[in-house]
Each structure stands twice: as structure tokens, then as C-alpha cells.
Amino acid sequence: MSNEVDILENDILKRDPALMEFLLIDHSRPKQGKKHGHIIWATDNYEPMGDAYRENTQISIESITGENGGIVQPRVKKTKAEQQSRARDKGEVFTPSWICNRQNNLVDNEWFGFNNAFNEETDEGWITKKDPVSFPTSKGFTWQDYVSDTRLEITCGEAPYLISRYDTITGEIIPVHDRIGLLDRKLRVVAENTASPEEWFEWVLIAYQNIYAYEWQGDNLLLARENALYTFDDNYKEKFGVMPTKEMVRKIAEIISWNFWQMDGLKGVIPNTCHDDVQEIPSLFGDSEKVITPCPGCRDDNYKKHNGIYCKIMDWRKGKAERYIDSIKL
After folding, report:
1. Model pTM?
2. Are 126 and 101 in contact (CB under 8 A)?
């Protein structure tokens, strides 16, 4: 289990280079040869560090490891000035964990048909119920139904509604059993209802396949993916007393690379990929005139007509990728 809020990219790279690749993949971006594209920075906070850190540049492994390791930090580790700057310029606001818990409880209260299945709320906190979670037999729901039910966190930042490894305000690590994220709750249910590592892992895969999150800024998305990955470590060690195998972790990392993706939520495309089309029209006098056609989707405020790169997500039940905008009702 990691007891550090800031997960170091150098540690991930040393552990298994394939994990760093999974954490940076952008499945929506076209491949260059056999190489996957990566998520972009989508923020100008790092531009003073050089060309590799420009807003629309893809994040490379080299740019965040080695001597550059540690430049991507959770909000709680950033200076107050940087927190205020990102809130002012990007509208980045992090919700206290106890408020995430209250709002997640509202979701679960509706699903279960009764209140406080996982914990009792206090003024600015919660008290975890120690008994196994019970399920509403009157609705015919089972624990498997809960684990399989799909959840989405929009504009997720570091994904505090899905994952609560640490308190978003104090930075203190939260014990596994006391975590309140929507993924954390699924993993608790799996742990309470399975015994063998094989059965546990089967249902943990289903839990991860049924949580989704998107984010604009690449550094935040990387942090969310890292939190999701290390949450798996934490829960496996909590349940079985040892760390999971490399093969298990890679399977989880692949799911995370699909289910936590970079997107402009207003357009359904990779951030900053909509563009003007410029056409040179020859004139009778030998020169030419530029005709600029703006992105149709941006011009007409039409979600389905953007010329940017539409984002893909994986439908794990069908076993195939589809455009995000095709998976929702508009």
C-alpha cells in the first residue's frame, strides 16, 4: 500500500515501464506507426520548462521522469499561489472529501432505497459502518448488480468522487476500509463478498470497467489514473496481505487507460483539436485568396459537427470502442 499522497512517476517507471505507457496513452488519438498517442498537457502551467511542456504537446515519459520526476503533483501538494492560479484561470476547484461522501451517499441512497449503506455522516466527516453492506432484497438487487452498475465523474480533476486515497484538503491518507469514492465502495463490496484471489480479481475487473471519468488538463488526468492504479494495489494488499502480480496490475492499467480519458466535455473531442480549415483560392490575377472556414460544431454549437478528434471510450460488455458522443443521449 502506498502511504504517500504524491505518487512518483520515477517509482512507477522503475516498477514496470509498461505502466507509465498505460498512464499516458490517449486511445482517441491516431497512432503514429505502431506507437500510441499520449494525452497532452492542456495547461500552460509547465510552459516555462521548455518546448516539451507546451499546452498542446503530448506528455512524454521523459518529460515527467528522471530529473523531471515529481513535477506533476496533487493539488494538496501545490503551493497556495498555484492553487489559486489554477482556480482562477482554469476554474479548478477541489471538493472536500466529506462533501464528496455526502453527494456519493445521495447516489447510493437512491440506489439502495435506504440511507447510509456505507457510513454515517458527521459535520465534516463520516463514521464507517463496520458490518458488511446489506442489499435491498425488496428491489431484487444483489451485490453483483452494485459492482456492475456504471458510474461517471465529469471534469474529474484527480477523481475524488471515484477514489479517496487521501483527504483532498489535509492530504492525509485514508485507510482502505474508510474510503468513500464510488470505486472504493465497489471494491469494498467485492472484498466483503468474495474469498479467493481469482474470484476477487474477476469482480474487481468488472468494478473498474464500470467507472468512467474525463478531464481536460493532462496533469490532473495523470494523477487520477495514478490514484486509480494505486487504489488497486491498496485493496489487494488489504485483502490478501501481499502485492498483486505484474499481470494483474497491467490488466487494471489497461482498463484505466480507456476509462479515464482526456476530453473537452462541451464538445466531446480531445481538447484544442477543433480548428479552422484554410483553403487557398486562386484568382484571375495570379495571386490567391485565403478562405477560412471555422469548425462547424463550434460555429453552430452542434455537438456532433466538430472537426476536432472525437474521444473514444471502451464498451467492455461489447468488447469494442465507440465515440463517447454516440454512447450518450443528446
Report:
1. 0.93
2. yes
